[in-house]
Input
Amino acid sequence: MARRYVLITPCRDEAAHLPVTIASVASQTVLPARWVIVNDGSTDGTAEILAEAEKRHGFIRVVHRNDRGERAVGPGVVNAFYAGLETVNLDEYDYVCKLDGDLDLPRDYFQRIMERFENDEYLGNCSGKSYVRQSGQLVSERLGDENAIGAAKFYRVQCFRDIGGFLRQVSWDGIDGHMCRLHGWIAQSDDDEALRFVHLRRMGSSQRSLWTGRLRWGRGKYFMGSALYYVAAVSLYRMFERPYIAGGMGILCGYLGAMLKREQRFEDRAYLRFLHRFERCALLMGKRRAIRKFNDELWTRFPPPSRRGGVGVLGRTQASRDAA
Output
């Protein structure tokens, strides 16, 4: 099986975490064919760390972007990702992965991920689960199984092209999984112990505070088209993790704030019909049963990917998505 994969890592001010990520990638049992690390205007020691890494590892290439003044999550991360992607030819690779610069990966992580792709040709987007260290213990970030984790999105190139790539908006990392299923691909994350990785900085805490991150999460749910009743259920679920109560309330407040301001939403009717059907099934059946139901439907609705024609819609849809 071909196992040429390219990693794209947007990073800003990651001097405290990047050496661990570099060491964990450099020790992989199957190394990346190319790792493009985008220094997105860092003001700490990130540039020096990357310069040393580029000298030491022949598969690393560093792209530097100007400092825009502050960390910009959501669309800012995706813009940095594309700055790296523009330097490679995806035709030369089988897989593409958006990888954060604050992760500690198991030594055989990418080998095991690619084995999963080789065993299921419908699999388009996959990751393990992220954990954080709390009081000496590893604690799950409790992310759903219906998509790859945003910090480590590993894609089959054919699937990445079919869905039009990543939307340059908040909640890009939620929309893409539903777009996968809409276009005949499985998207998932798996809590297999061998695929668990450590998030060195808790999800949603990288901009100003965890509260800011939860407000952004809620705004993202509004943009991606989630129904209010579904977001209320998500918020309740998140109230039982740190920061207790406040974390879930932040999501709901962010959603309601965006709704009251009538902020822009992602207006793709086919996607919205699909999303709302999935959310209703998840509430009625439980999310895991809903995921199995939707994945099983792919076998009857779509031919195997090896028998599908076309070259994907990445070029056709990206301009309109940028405008959104």
